[in-house]
């Protein structure tokens, strides 16, 4: 599984990457612009990501806009619903507006920080991202 | 449901929405049970509610609720598609109620910040078993199961991890005790130096004494040592090395902690600040419109255009608004009644002032009306109480609701829900007889309880009327005698006064204590709850025909019409509602009895006089009755003449509670609160019922 983590906060990034690297190859970027770059490059190289974790408050381009850009791009290329990249928003913003907005834009899950890893795993399993389902 | 542990908006929203849906569903079930059939519409509605609950709980990863909702949904899907005949409705309804109870318990856990961990599998099995038995009767096609199974939520919300998860991340926990060299002086500063040093090096630590900023902690450091509780990923040696660098160190002990919970428990309060960072305690949400039962309401975000006419506002915000309007009313009085304006003829100013007055009054009315909520929600919850009680006690009771559209202040509603439930339970338990006894008495088999609300002036009357056996006077008296609750003059008690005895603490007439009532706290709690919001409870009864309990509740608590009077330098405000008349007494009307108690003869009736200046020990020039003013006040048929220096005027005042430091210092009788007058001085609001009964 290819995973991209976009997160500007160092401890969060490290924590997430350490946790997720058990389940796949993790790439890390520190802002939204880089996230988009990484996403486009991965498609060009035909090695696209299975999971993208987006922080919302990031420099340059925020996570919500990245999400929107990704979904727009997918729509333009005519990617079918079930083939779309899975996106999990990971953020300390917990307002219902943010959650609703992100869901409307089409993220798969919204995780409030501090992240509950057990529940995260559960969701990954439900999204069908785990090759070896956790015990 | 105020609990500061909940600070995740998504969780709040889930709890709020689900609670509403569950309530809606209960209402539907009660009506279907009455009609003993489901209409297609109702089935669809139930199906939709279960579907929504399932979807949102799956999104929030509350799998047990989702699974249960799913099973219920299956059941109603079957009912909707197959329309089976001859189904036992009460069985279905029992099953659904069990399910709803389960969901309610889980919601409560969430509200308290606990994990949702209830085991729903037994309920689900029951539901499946029941569904299978239904299907067995009908021979159903297989496609049924598949459709409702196809639903898999596509989006998830992962709620924040609880603090305990983080705690587990640290590998080691130590307790270190440091003794400083004797006579090194300023031990607290040395300790502070240690803390400073450790910060940034260790992940998490606490120290005892907790306050090392002032010198008072020095003796403790000297005798007990400076104790540190550390959680870290560093090893034993690393921590020891770090602590060894302490200046003036005399002795250092370091040991591991196994039992984290107890060792760190004194610091619990400090452990949580990161958790409470959100800080906004859960604001109970209220619905501002009667359209609570609007069927589209349950669909979150689905139909935005339907939401435009209603918004949910937190009560805290409304309270704040109310406060501000109250301040404005005072400020308005400060301007228009400003002493600087005295004697000036200001026509334009007066005009503007009148306009301002009109607008503030309107604003006040609007704010009040916004806070008003119909009693319907509270009333309808009683249906469930009646149903459960009847099942348990094998009685037949029907509940009639009258005037449920009556509106009262939101705060008051919260205070009367519990008392109402108590009273209804009492009526069913003690009042209504068993069906066979009723038949023997020539009454209809099923009893009736009428719950009625109506407006009466600035009060709302809520009455609970049953057609049961009524109160038994002799039993009440005997019981009161047994518990030493009888007043010395009990032979003179009127019927009403006897019935009033049941509201005394420690009174319960039912011989056997039942699950629902009879612990002797119920009625006592009722009356204290009601008087807490400034209301009163009265009981009346006709033997063998039934009993009536009436709650008199003020419409609102925040703003009252008051008459301000002066006694010496003090001002008092008397609620205008209780004022009957005010006049200058004539010498010939004053009667003094042998005990030196003064009374006033007014139109052939004698009324006791209360001299406010004596009662509150206020110094005043006017101590002869004929020189001052009498304000006659009345409450519940009792009248009292208050003697004051002079009347100041009438105005609307904002009731503020007396500050707690005064209340804790001394219990002052006869005061309901205080308020600010237009000139900025403080006026005490008199509690007339309190004064009369004093």
From TrEMBL, chain A:
Biological processes, Gene Ontology terms: phosphorelay signal transduction system
Positions of the Response regulatory domain: 2-128
Keyword Phosphoprotein assigned: yes
SMART domains recorded: REC (SM00448)
Pfam short name (any one): Response_reg
Modified sites of kind 4-aspartylphosphate: 55
Record keywords, A-Z: Phosphoprotein, Two-component regulatory system
InterPro entries: CheY-like_superfamily, Sig_transdc_resp-reg_receiver
Protein function: May play the central regulatory role in sporulation. It may be an element of the effector pathway responsible for the activation of sporulation genes in response to nutritional stress. Spo0A may act in concert with spo0H (a sigma factor) to control the expression of some genes that are critical to the sporulation process.
Name of the protein this chain belongs to: Stage 0 sporulation protein A homolog
Organism per entry: Desulfosporosinus acididurans
Gene: copR
From TrEMBL, chain B:
Protein name as it appears in the record: Chemotaxis protein CheA
EC numbers for this chain: 2.7.13.3
Record PTM Phosphohistidine, positions in chain: 51
Main location: cytoplasm
Record domain CheW-like: where: 559-694
Compartment(s) where it occurs, according to its Swiss-Prot or TrEMBL record: Cytoplasm
GO BP of this protein: chemotaxis
Origin organism lineage: Bacteria, Bacillati, Bacillota, Clostridia, Eubacteriales
